[in-house]
Amino acid sequence: MKILQLSDLHLENISITSNQLYEDLKDKNFDLIALTGDFLDRKRTIPKLVPYLQVLNRLNAKYGIYAVLGNHDYVLKQENLNALIHTLEKHHCKVLRNESETIHINGHPLNIIGVDDFSTKRSELEMAYKNVKPSTNLVLTHDPNIVLHMENYHFDYLLSGHFHGGQICYPKAYHLVKMGKLARMKIIKGLHKQHGKPFYINEGLGQTGLNIRVGSRPEITIHEFALNALDQELIKAN
């Protein structure tokens, strides 16, 4: 299973054009595309999302595009939030808000579980897992702090974003201490494990606040893992 993850586009201050994104990815084959929130936070930016979604559709991921929302997306007023969701769905992105969908890969079911944003208190784990039957669980969410509350909710791999790798790390990302326990544990990017279960924190493609990065880099992540009827093994995240 080969997954492309994009996170934290923050289209007001994104680090890559849609054409550059296509050139970087056009020769790769993906089974699934995962978008883990924080697309934008201003109504006028919504049209800017369209060319990026068009690029993702041109990549023809075999099992489609799945998205969750982040805290900045929820800055939008309801009618504008609906416009954002409509734009995503119009371009064939399945937006999961505390819900799941099951796909089958060579006969093996994979549950794609979208947990809504934890930092804005919208995560409802019981609701997200309501229709999940035992199998391999891939969780998409924005704020990785949710992993600290998932003792009773199984996942095999979890994709998230939110921290931007600190964005400005000089000499350290002290400003992240207000962003939850993981940040205070200095878990702000890359691959980690919680109770033996792997989760990945993407550094994002855009910036918020100051349009600058120090000690962190914009990131496009490709995840590969093997599936069979008995086991799931993470091979790599690069």
Automatic annotation (TrEMBL):
<feature type="domain" description="Calcineurin-like phosphoesterase">
    <location>
        <begin position="1"/>
        <end position="165"/>
    </location>
</feature>
<dbReference type="GO" id="GO:0016020">
    <property type="term" value="C:membrane"/>
</dbReference>
<dbReference type="InterPro" id="IPR029052">
    <property type="entry name" value="Metallo-depent_PP-like"/>
</dbReference>
<dbReference type="GO" id="GO:0046872">
    <property type="term" value="F:metal ion binding"/>
</dbReference>
<dbReference type="GO" id="GO:0008758">
    <property type="term" value="F:UDP-2,3-diacylglucosamine hydrolase activity"/>
</dbReference>
<keyword id="KW-0479">Metal-binding</keyword>
<dbReference type="GO" id="GO:0009245">
    <property type="term" value="P:lipid A biosynthetic process"/>
</dbReference>
<dbReference type="Pfam" id="PF00149">
    <property type="entry name" value="Metallophos"/>
</dbReference>
<dbReference type="InterPro" id="IPR051158">
    <property type="entry name" value="Metallophosphoesterase_sf"/>
</dbReference>
<protein>
    <submittedName>
        <fullName>Metallophosphoesterase</fullName>
    </submittedName>
</protein>
<dbReference type="InterPro" id="IPR004843">
    <property type="entry name" value="Calcineurin-like_PHP"/>
</dbReference>
<keyword id="KW-0378">Hydrolase</keyword>
